[in-house]
Amino acid sequence: MATRASTARSNYGIACAQCGDGLIAPEWSECVGERHVRHLWQCANCGCQFETSAYIRDAAGLKMGDTDWEEVFPFLLVA
Description:
mainly beta; 4-stranded mixed beta sheet; two-stranded antiparallel ribbon; 1 helix; 6 strands
């Protein structure tokens, strides 16, 4: 089984490493570390199996404050 870095830039799936057929979802995913996810892909067309790794960037600067939450989820009026 081959391992390679993910080069997919699509929001949906990835191309098979061997035949290029489009794969929508991995067979399984595994959280390896706090910001590292590993995916196992298997192509239904040619049977090729390969892994990709995704490294999630630090989102510390993207955290929502109390006012942000109120804008996104306004308080419900209860009578």
